[in-house]
Amino acid sequence: MAQNIQEAPNTMVNRALWAALLAAAIVAPLVLPEGKLNVLVLTVLFVYLCVAWNIVGGFAGQFCLGHSLFLAAGAYTSTLLQIHLGISPWLGMFVGGFLAAAIGVAIAWLSFRYTLPPLAFALVTLSLSMLGFLAVSSIDFLGASRGLQVPTRGDAWMYHFAGDLPYYYAVLIQAVLAITLTLWLYHHKIGLYFRSLRDNERAALAIGIPVLRYKMLALAISGFLTALAGTFYAQYLMYVEPHTFVGLTIVIEIILFTVVGGTGTRWGPVLGPLLLVPLGEFLRANLGGRIEGLHLFIYGVLLVAVIRFLPGGLSALFARLATRFSSQFKS
Q: CA neighbours within 13 Å on the CB side: how many for 113?
């Protein structure tokens, strides 16, 4: 029922929301001081990551805990190509993206050819993520636990900018393209097949949908997009190390933000990070020194509240408000 409610808003309201969010995102950095732009960069980055995860975890309903592998594939591949071959990260990011897509296909094939249940798939991806962390932390070529320093070339071709503003618009363009792709997928036959896997896999198989193929496709698309974010994050931080890129923390945050926003919806992966990332940064900046981990406690409380009172997430709440506003406007 909640799923039907949150997908009900009038198309005009959806377009108005999209236009308002895009306009606000374009104007926001122009009215904020330079020192606050890092929060905007992180917010839009997590919007992008949540949108990418939602393709496989929301649309296709396959609860994946291994997206740190894809993030690391993009970050480490583009950085190593830049260090050893002088290849621009603008090119290396696509090499990392295709590598992540191949990893996603391999994981999906190994997991789903034996029709593993959703919980088993989650545990498999969690185990692979932990193995990836141990491997990256031990291989000297990958920098081991000390990480890799991203070369500073001082020009845009090598993905290096002065100040946060160009990085912000770079990740904003990526996020807009990812959201546009998911909106297209949602209404395309591929998206319908994805959602049929989520809603009733046996029924989808009975009507002739190649279940394994579309599960592999969902994980490949999600992994490819996540790897592109890995390259951006590496260039933004100018440093690549296991805890940030292959650790479990970032995966938990991606999933938590998406669940609070509304898993499997079009706007949930956008709304969740827009609320929680600035909130977390505010709590860390103002109370982090006095109450360690307060932002994580607040995240947990919000998650429990959403599960209890808004099973469809913030997207369901906005859908109800939009429906009510639309009905009043028509009357």
A: 6
Query: Rounded distance, CA 280 to CA 299, Å?
Result: 8
Which own/partner contact pairs does 172-175 have at CB distance under 8 Å and 24+ positions apart? 172/25, 172/26, 172/44, 174/48, 174/228, 174/229, 174/232, 175/44, 175/45, 175/47, 175/48, 175/51
Express each pLDDT in 66-94 by its tens digit: 999 999 999 999 999 999 999 999 999 99
- Amino acid type, 322: A
- C-alpha to C-alpha distance for 229 and 203, rounded to whole angstroms: 35
Question: Which pTM does this prediction carry?
Answer: 0.90
| Helical (H) or strand (E) element with 113 | none
Residue range 118-137, pLDDT digits in tens = 788 899 999 999 999 999 99
| Both structure tokens of 163 | 């100040």
CA distance linking residue 140 with residue 145, whole number of Å: 8
